[in-house]
Design goal:
about 280 residues; mainly beta; Jelly Rolls; seven-stranded antiparallel sheet; six-stranded antiparallel sheet; globular
Length: about 280
């Protein structure tokens, strides 16, 4: 029987948050905003939720959350369309459950024309059945990543996202997936939302305690004054196929971000999660 813990766990031994890329002096915000949508709340085993930016505005960051899944539901896709206008989030049950659950989709949007050179870069893995797959999307020279996404295809609920991670220099985004069941051949795609750098760009991180508690929610420190949250990332350490990232959420005020990890199956060892956010301004 899978171990359940009521509510969100209190984290101990929390490491100090770090600012990885020094920000330039505070600049005026470009006016990013967040839009959100929530799926129906029921026990259907797969749910898809899209959300679009207003008018001609474009996506610079994506987010998603599984609500009430208790670790039994995977967030298998959190990705933008080719036009960078819509974010879609997909939840799939890894363990059969009769508990109602839902999916949130979030898009961080830039008003049309405020972010120069915005483009989507995607990299897709080979179609195979490896136990672990990692893939990186790299921005072109002269551009940096504002946000990122991923999608798993043909995994049948047996492959979980272990990380969506930004490099300190914001030149690329990587995603990693672990197999915990028997999916057969599947693919993993990583997306980078790349653009001409703004005057202020920084990656902030916060690391949870290293213990056996599940779930682990972790919130980043606030963005530097004058900048806003664009991309959100999360990295699990220690679970190696026994857990998944189920929350990657930019706050409504676009100043912090949250990442949450859950165990898929009982896991006796210690593990932690590193929450990331890309701050721009």
């Amino acid at each position: 029987m899978k171990r359940k813990l009521a509510g969100l766990a209190v984290l101990t031994g929390m490491a100090a948050a770090t600012l990885l890329a020094p920000a330039t002096p505070a600049q005026a915000s470009v006016g990013l905003y967040r839009v959100a949508a929530t799926s129906v709340l029921d026990a259907t085993n797969t749910k898809t939720m899209p959300i679009s930016c207003n008018g001609a505005d474009q996506v610079v960051g994506a987010g998603g959350r599984i609500n009430d899944g208790q670790g039994d539901v995977l967030m298998t896709r959190m990705y933008a369309d080719a036009a960078l206008h819509t974010v879609t989030v997909v939840g799939v049950e890894a363990n059969a459950t009769n508990v109602p659950w839902s999916v949130n989709a979030f898009a961080v949007c830039a008003p049309a024309g405020t972010v120069a050179g915005l483009q989507l870069v995607t990299t897709t893995s080979a179609n195979n059945a490896l136990d672990k797959v990692g893939i990186t999307a790299v921005c072109p020279p002269g551009k940096k990543t504002f946000g990122g996404g991923y999608r798993i295809d043909n995994a049948n609920g047996a492959v979980a996202i272990d990380e969506l991670a930004f490099t300190p220099a914001l030149g690329s985004v990587s995603s990693t997936a672990y197999v915990f069941g028997a999916p057969g051949n599947f693919t993993l795609q990583t997306q980078a939302f790349c653009a001409t750098p703004l005057p202020a760009m920084a990656l902030t991180e916060a690391l949870s305690g290293l213990n056996a508690t599940s779930p682990k929610p972790m919130t980043t420190p606030a963005c530097p004054a004058g900048s806003q949250t664009a991309g959100v990332g999360g990295v699990l350490n220690g679970l190696t196929g026994a857990g998944s990232v189920t929350t990657l959420v930019p706050s409504a005020t676009l100043d912090t971000a949250q990442a949450t990890g859950w165990e898929i199956a009982p896991f006796a060892g210690a593990w932690n999660i590193r929450a990331q956010q890309v701050c721009v301004g």
